[in-house]
Each structure stands twice: as C-alpha cells, then as structure tokens.
Amino acid sequence: MLRSRIRTKLTRGETVLCAKAGYQDPEIVELMGTYGFDGLWLCLEHRKLDPSVVGHLIRAARLGGMDTIVRTRPSNYADLIWLLEAGARAIMLPKVVSPAEVREVVDAMKFPPEGRRGLDGVQAESAFGRFPARDYIAQANHENVLVVQIEEAAVVPHIDAIAALPGVDVLFVGPGDLTLSLGISGSYDAPAVTAILEQVVAACRRHGKVAGIPCAADQVARYHALGFRFFNVISDYRCLLNGLNKTQADLQAAGFPLAAPSA
Questions:
Q1: Is residue 260 situated within a structural domain?
Q2: Is residue 254 part of a domain?
Q3: Active site (catalytic) residues
C-alpha cells in the first residue's frame, strides 16, 4: 500500500503544498506532479466527471508522486468508497454546516472499529489484493485524510466541535464561499473573515489538527505566519491563463497584437 505523502508531512508538522486540476487530462496531472507538489486537488463538487476519467486522473497523480484530494458533492457520501479504493488519499468535504455531517463521512471512510466502511481488498488502494487484509485495514485508517471545508456562515459556531472530531485532519477555509455566505463577497481581509481564520487556527492547535487555505504562492508566507500549514497554490487553469496573458502582452509589446475574440 502506498504511503500518503500528505499524511507523512502532517505527522511531521511540515507544510503541505497542493495544486488543483480542472481539466480532464491525465498528462497535465502527471506533469504537475513532476514539480514536487504533495497533493492534487480534484473537484467533483462543481464538475461531473465520468468515473473512468476520475480513475485515470488519480492514477496520473500517483504516477507523479502526489496524493489525490477529491472534493465530493455535498451530502453525497455514497461516492466516497470507490474514490478511496481507486487510490485517492484524501476526501475534501464542502459546504459543511454541522458536526453530524462530518461524523457520517468519518464513518464512511474508516474501517471498524473507527467507522463502518465495507471491505473490498482487491482495489488499487490495497495493492490489488496483494496486501494482507489486516495490515491494509490498519494502514488505510491511518493514511487516508479528511479535509473539512469551512465556507459557510452556519458552520462558524461549530468550528471547535468539528476540529475535535476523531478522523478529521484538516480544516480548509474556502474564502470565496465564506465571504459570499457572510454577505461580503470578495472581502477577504474583512475583520469578520480574519476572526474566522484565527478561530480555525486556534481550534486546530487545540485539537491537534491542521489549518488549510487556498492562496497564491506569494501569499503562503503570510498565511503560514497566521498558523496555516496546508495550501493549494495553483491550478492548471491558472497556469494556462497566466501563460496566455503573458503571450498576449508580449505580442502586443512587439507590435503583433492578437485579434480581439468575438463576443
């Protein structure tokens, strides 16, 4: 069974750096892995992908040396098991509003006695059945990571209770949806947002968990100083956009402007 790169770094108290994939191309995922990222964030909340495509992306991430973090659709816990069996190392749970939701996911992710997950020992996660069942169960319970998103105003009173739950590893703030939920969309430096960030960090420290947030690479030091240790810093979309913007600007400066696209 492959060890989780994210789990190893969390255990050591090291910083975790991830990238996000929005396109359905395993080759892009494998390329991203060659840059040394710890994890690949794959979103199934806002994208509906064929399971075979998801499997290829997970395998490409494994080939590139990255754990796969799969953000599932809210309240769709039936889809968790096959993702773990395919080799995903972490589940990201969006739109959480109560500890009860999180406990249900922990039950789905963990084998007894820590949860109620059913056993199928012939998938990629268990080295296709070549791993002793007892060892597989113990390592899967240890290696798999649960990332709970803090992005709803309704969850704020429950942050400490969620951080206290066994089976929760990371509290990952979603600034976009959080500010939208608070009625201050895009105001990431508002006092109310800062207070929630501080609350998340304090709860994680109190209960031995890790605080996470998506941010640009040049913002990592700022959030790290606040107590965050788990970051998503780039996406395939952002790489493509930045490259196209630079090419457009370079051509403009050289006197060869690109034609404006039609509406």
A1: no
A2: no
A3: 46
Number of domains present in the structure of the chain = 1
Helices (H), the chain: 5-12, 26-33, 51-63, 80-85, 99-109, 133-143, 159-163, 175-182, 191-207, 220-226, 236-253
pTM of the model: 0.87
Which phi and psi (to 5°) does residue 248 adopt? -60, -45
Instruction: Note down the domain range covering 120.
Output: 5-245
DSSP secondary structure letter of residue 4: P
Please check whether residue 12 is in contact with residue 225, taking contact to mean a CB–CB distance below 8 angstroms.
no
For 95-139, the pLDDT digits (tens) are 999 999 999 999 999 999 999 998 887 888 888 888 889 999 999
- Residues 187, 179 contacting (CB under 8 angstroms): yes
Closest CA to 58 of 34, 93, 94, 82: 82
Beta carbons within 10 angstroms of residue 112's beta carbon: 12
